[in-house]
Amino acid sequence: MGLVPEKAVQIKSMDDGLRNRLWNCFVNVFFGLPDFEKFASFFLSPEEQFQRSFICNLFDKHFKIDVDDIQMNYDNLSFSKWRDTSVIEIRKILDKSEWNEIYDFIEFVINYLPKGDNRDSLIKEINNVLEEEKSGYRFLGSTLVDITDEEEMSVIKEATTLEDKLKVVSNHLEKSLKFYANRENPDYINSIKVKKLRSYLTV
User: Fold this and answer.
1) Around 65, how many Cα atoms within 13 Å sit in the side-chain half-sphere?
2) Cα(136)–Cα(13) distance, rounded to whole angstroms?
């Protein structure tokens, strides 16, 4: 109806709507699966094995917190109860996180998933949420980048999706893009010189 003011682009902030919808993307892809509670905790389905591995790696490699309590809970609880308890703990951590830490978490999730349709679908879903919620960031491949300069991002996207004949250049650009995308300390010296990319694209 036009009564609600249009959202401003979110660059160094994240409102509750964006925060919660990104969380929903994560829950849907990892835990929107059948419950295999009927099995003993040591006999896990492939889905449960993947979930357990992800949770342990998330706490250890991303949050970098002590996983002793998590492992103890796993030993004492059925898998589904341990998983649900872990998800609650993850949400508590994210509720206290800064905006850039939320994006780091989402990027960790994307890069943890093996390449394929599931990861591509999640990236597409997250990008839709980011666009609808006026976030100033988008995924290009598996890297989350600032998209405030649309012309530069268009060139980067084209360059990072080159065919095999330019795979070396494409790989170099992907690595450089990670320097550019650092949300705390962007490394512009090591990042790509975007305006010079057009010469690569016309090879």
Assistant:
1) 11
2) 10
Strand 143-146 to strand 137-140: parallel, antiparallel, or no bridges (unpaired)?
antiparallel
User: What pTM was computed for the model?
Assistant: 0.69
Residues 6+ apart with CB under 8 A from 159: 169, 170, 173, 192, 197, 200, 201
d(CA 70, CA 51) in angstroms, rounded, equals: 13
Half-sphere exposure of 152 (CA within 13 A, CB side): 15
Q: Which residues of 29-60 are buried (b: 16+ CB within 10 A; e: fewer)?
A: bbeeeeebeeeebeebeeebebbbebbeebbe
Which pLDDT value is given to residue 39? 41
d(CA 74, CA 72): 5
120/141 Cα distance (integer angstroms): 9
3-state SS, residue 65: coil
Count CA within 13 A, CB hemisphere, residue 170: 14
At a CB cut-off of 8 Å and minimum separation 6, what does 73 contact? 82, 85, 86
Across the chain, what does the average pLDDT equal?
75
40 band by pLDDT with thresholds 50, 70 and 90: very low
- The β-bridge partners of 140 are 143
One-letter amino acid of 189: I
